[in-house]
Amino acid sequence: MKLEKLRKGNFIKTSVIVLVVISVFGVIFINKSKAKYRVTQSIQVVSGEVNYKVPDLNVLALYKQKTEGDTSDGNYESITDVPASGYKVNTDKSYCTIVGNDTQLKDIPMEYKDGRVSISIKKKGTKCYVYLDIYEPTLLDQLKEKVNSTSEGCPAYEETPSITSIEDKKSLLCKGIDDFGDTYYYRGAVTNNWVKLGNTYWRIIRVNGNGSIRLIYSGSGNPATSGTSTQIGTSKYNASYRGEIYVKYMDDNMNNSTTNPKNSNIKQVLDDWYKTNLKSTYESIIDGTAGFCNDADNGSTSSNTQHYKPYDRILINKEPTFKCGTPTTNLFTTSDGTYGNQKLTNPIGLITIDEANFAGGIWGKGNSNNYLCTGQEYWTMSPSECQNGFAHILNISGDARFGIYGAEDAFGVRPVINLKADTQFKDGGDGTSTNPYTVVI
Fold first, then answer.
1. What kind and span of H or E run contains 331?
2. For residue 304, with 0-12 CB atoms within 10 Å meaning exposed, 13-18 middle and 19 or more buried, which class applies?
3. How far is the C-alpha of 144 from the C-alpha of 156, rounded, in Å?
4. Which residue from 36, 74, 79 is spatially nearest to 54, judged by alpha carbons?
5. Which residues are registered as beta bridge partners of 332?
6. pLDDT per residue over 362-395, tens digit each?
7. What is the per-residue pLDDT across 4-38, written as a single tens digit (0 to 9) for each?
8. DSSP codes joined into one string, 384-414
9. d(Cα 428, Cα 105) in Å, to the nearest integer?
10. Cβ proximity of 209 and 180 under 8 Å
11. What is the DSSP secondary structure assignment for residue 250, as one 8-state letter?
12. Residues 217/200, Cβ–Cβ less than 8 Å
């Protein structure tokens, strides 16, 4: 501010006049700011002058949507305060301009979060018009805000990170890579990944790269409080283990099931349970395109033994992956999508040993604090080896260590399903066992 020197006798009188004139001209300036937006403005006051700069950023108009889904101009109302929640920036309608140029700029980043709109300006004198659409964040949106970093305990963000130790203390949400893109997975002593589906309870393994949510069955009734079983029963993986074909979840040449000869025993158990407990009520929200990996690609060999890729990754190299080797044969999906083998009628499967490794378990060491530890031994979907002509599968023991057993042995069955990305959940759930994320049908 720059003012001419005033005579002492008129100081008080003139000061009052200056304040009044500044106030009047301030109102006039604000009202005319849309039409005239100059970098510097001057106000004459009596025999003096006030110089000041306009703001770098001016939000000239703020609108919110009245009816969800309708983006016509007539469906927005002008507002003065940013709503506390329930909206997102409509980037197609929102725009900015720069002083002296009326061209609409769409490349200026805007974000709505915690009841505030943040705008990343590039030049002084930016003028913005912001449109907010009604929006309820998905579970994935909520989880992304909670992701931990590598320095906080998560494995490196890469396709095959090295995992050599258990995680039994921290509760982590980590980021990885699967066949569809970025996946967000739980790791360690997790207590906030509970989901309630009807009268059944599940744990979130991860959010798949296609946005679907992968769950593993944890009981009818909350196992954390009621002590109910976390599995639907026990089953042999296959009726026989005499031949490498019996490491398969399903194969056209298999013949050990009277209901469907192509099915493994454990697939038939899962199919029957799905049709009885999930199909009629929940089929519309269950995703069949993310699939389930039965990676039976050949790995290393030793005396009379053909190992499979999961064995090599977890027991030898200690480098798990969420990607499924040779998806056209090993990734069991439904015909709803275009990826995988599209052989499934019922979108249900088992956890992989790689997912268990990412979750915090390793070969040869128990981990009783891990969220996959149930006190019961259960199958994974991952083949281990064919030794002397006998098929073996990897499993998870009662203290969450990994084991290898013949396909004809009987262990627990914990179904795994994928909920569609747009599945709705009741408000207020925080994922704990007493306040789980509850699916809305």
1. strand 331-332
2. exposed
3. 17
4. 36
5. 292
6. 999 999 999 999 999 999 999 999 999 999 999 9
7. 333 344 433 433 333 333 333 343 333 444 433 34
8. EEEETTEEEEEEE-TTS-EEEEETTSEEE--
9. 38
10. yes
11. B
12. yes
